[in-house]
Each structure stands twice: as structure tokens, then as C-alpha cells.
Amino acid sequence: MTEQLLDIRGLAVSRGPGEVLRDVNLAVRAGELAVLLGANGAGKSTLLDAVSGLVATRAGEVRFDGEEVSGLSRTRRARLGIRHVEQGRAIFGDLTVAENLAVVAPRQSHAEALEQFPELRKRMDVRAAMLSGGEQQMLVLARALLSPASKRATGTRLLLLDELSLGLAPIVVARLLPIVRSLTDRGITVLLVEQFAHLVLPIADTVHVLDRGTIVFSGTQAELEADPRILHKAYLAA
Ligand SMILES: Nc1ncnc2c1ncn2[C@@H]1O[C@H](COP(=O)(O)OP(=O)(O)OP(=O)(O)O)[C@@H](O)[C@H]1O
Ligand SMILES: [Mg+2]
User: How many A from CA of 214 to the centre of ligand 2?
Assistant: First the structure.
């Protein structure tokens, strides 16, 4: 049996008056890059929130490396190695790149997190507001690889990435995606949320499609493309 790092079963989440997720089953194997697709409002961000602990679950299980984590605080889950890059780039524009990283972890741990981002290494003393959108997203990624609890940057085991492509030109996204892909070579499992399927399908090991709070497809890119009705329905159904 293959090892599931993340195993979500029968998950239900309510936000305000409405049920946003219902009976969600989704498993991510250790070391893979899984993509979660779905239209605006389908519940993609809410699903990541439920994994990282930003929102409470109403029913079901969220198992991380075999342990049920849905009762744990966000901090406890972060300590287990769950990192969540939330939708929108949250950086401190007035601080330099180095200072943005130092907010999360001591400087001696930065070099390891910056290995993938040579552009950033050259701009450590530049104010983050002066970076391009793509560079800002690299900073967000580098920060997610830093481990607050230790002096090393290897604490991240599961990286939840929400709409990396938001506001970026396709050519910039094309630069970032191989970096994301390479994280799995470093032993980091990635669950990437995206609205634009064509951007991320080429780098995905597995694909999941969320349609109005329910998973309607889990499989490979080839399986998804064999039935165009799945995406069509998830994105266009009223
Ligand atoms: N804090 C909140 N309070 C109440 N309802 C919320 C909250 N956050 C999200 N929702 C609702 O939950 C549903 C799913 O939202 P969610 O942000 O998870 O969707 P999404 O798939 O990430 O959409 P997008 O592609 O636009 O980011 C939406 O109907 C939204 O209005
Ligand atoms: Mg979202």
C-alpha cells in the first residue's frame, strides 16, 4: 500500500449559514504533487483552511501522516510540518526581502530556503514592495519553506499552495511552476490549488476537481482529459 501523507475522509465544513464542503474524500501520497481544481467559490481555499486549521470542520477526518489533526490548533499542525500559503501574496512591503524572511525564522536558516530562488538571493536588501509580482511570490514560497520552530528549513512536509498564479502573467507562472515541482524532490508533498487547469496540469501527479463543495474527480491528468465533461461541468454548470 502506498503511504498517504494526507488523508481526508467525509469532510464537511460550514461557513456562516452555508455548508461549503460536504463529504470530501481526498488523499495525497507522500512526495507527490497534487492539484485541486475548481471554479470560483467551489470551496478550494476552504479545503486548505480545513487542513491547516484556519477553519473548524463539522464532520469527517483530516489525517496527516496517520494522525487525526482536525482537533489540533493551527500552531500544532504547523509544528507537524503543515505549511499554508494563503490566497493572495502576504508580504511586508516596507521590509526588505531579508527582513521578510527574518520575521519567520532566524537568518542562519535562510540560505537553505533560498536555494531554489537565485533571483531573491541577489535582492536581499531590496524592499519587498519593489519586487515584481513573480519575485514576491518567490518570497512567499521561500518563507513557506522556513521552519519557525527550528534553525533549519527542512521542517515543511506538506505545502498547501493557494492560487500561486493569482495576478501573475502566464510567463511568470511558467517560471514558478518548475520550482514548485522541484520541491517534491526535496521530500516536500505539495497540494496546489488552482483555478486555471491548463497552467498546472502538466506538473501534476494527481488531479482532484471540486464542484460546489464536493470532489467530483480524482485521478491522473490523462484520465481527466479523457473525459472533458468533468471540467466543463465543474466550471460551467449553473
Ligand atoms: N469567511 C467566510 N465566511 C462565510 N463564507 C465564506 C467565508 N469564506 C468563504 N466563504 C464561502 O464559502 C464558499 C467557498 O469559498 P472558497 O473561498 O473556499 O472558494 P474557492 O474555491 O477558494 O474560490 P476562489 O476560486 O474564488 O478562491 C463561497 O461560497 C464563499 O462565499
Ligand atoms: Mg480560493
Answer: 15
**Residue 143 is part of which domain span?**
89-156
> Looking at ligand 1, which atom is closest to the CA of residue 213?
14
Q: Establish if 185 belongs to a structural domain.
A: no
Tens digit of pLDDT at every position of the chain (238 positions): 458 999 999 999 999 889 999 999 999 999 999 999 999 999 999 999 999 999 999 999 999 999 999 999 999 998 899 999 988 777 899 999 999 999 888 888 888 888 888 889 999 999 999 998 888 988 998 888 886 655 444 488 999 999 988 888 888 888 889 889 988 988 899 999 988 888 899 999 999 999 999 999 999 999 999 998 999 998 876 5
**Residue 179 domain-assigned?**
no
| Ligand having the closest approach to the CA of 162 | 2
Q: What are phi and psi of 91, to 5 degrees?
A: -125, 165
Question: Does 176 map to a domain?
Answer: no
Rounded-to-5 percentages of helix, strand, coil across the chain: 35, 30, 35
Our measurement of the distance from residue 151's CA atom to the centroid of its chain's CA atoms, rounded to an integer in Å, reads: 23
